[in-house]
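User: Just a sanity check before I run the rest of the batch. Below are the structure tokens for the first item. I only need the designed sequence back.
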């Protein structure tokens, strides 16, 4: 991943967020609000949207204590990706038409690719709960 001072700040904030359930829940509410404001028609791939929603479900399951099978480093970086996404001021400010979310999507896809095995484990866990409920 290329050096990005804003993502480095998000990583530092993520460790504080993960240590407090209330902070993580607040972050998830900010994520939900931001996901509703994104014009998904401008995003070329539906995979990005699904990745953000998957990430939200994973962090919610973690916050509620339902899913704890994820190592600290992926959890930290995935949380940092959410912090980066919800913060409107970053490497490319979100208000710039056409390109404002490019860096946010790049961060998300990079982190998702790096920890795809952990994401897949969560998705499998999630599906197993649906069938056992």
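Assistant: Here's the designed sequence for the first item:
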């Amino acid at each position: 991943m290329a050096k990005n001072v804003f993502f480095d700040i998000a990583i530092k904030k993520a460790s504080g967020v993960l240590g407090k359930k209330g902070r993580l829940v607040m972050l998830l509410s900010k994520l939900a609000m931001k996901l509703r404001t994104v014009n998904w028609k401008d995003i070329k791939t539906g995979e990005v949207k699904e990745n953000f929603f998957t990430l939200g479900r994973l962090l919610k399951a973690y916050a509620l204590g339902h899913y704890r099978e994820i190592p600290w480093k992926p959890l930290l970086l995935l949380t940092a990706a959410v912090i980066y996404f919800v913060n409107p001021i970053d490497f490319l400010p979100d208000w710039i038409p056409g390109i404002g979310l490019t860096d946010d999507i790049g961060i998300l896809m990079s982190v998702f690719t790096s920890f795809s095995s952990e994401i897949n484990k969560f998705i499998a866990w999630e599906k197993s709960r649906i069938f056992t409920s």
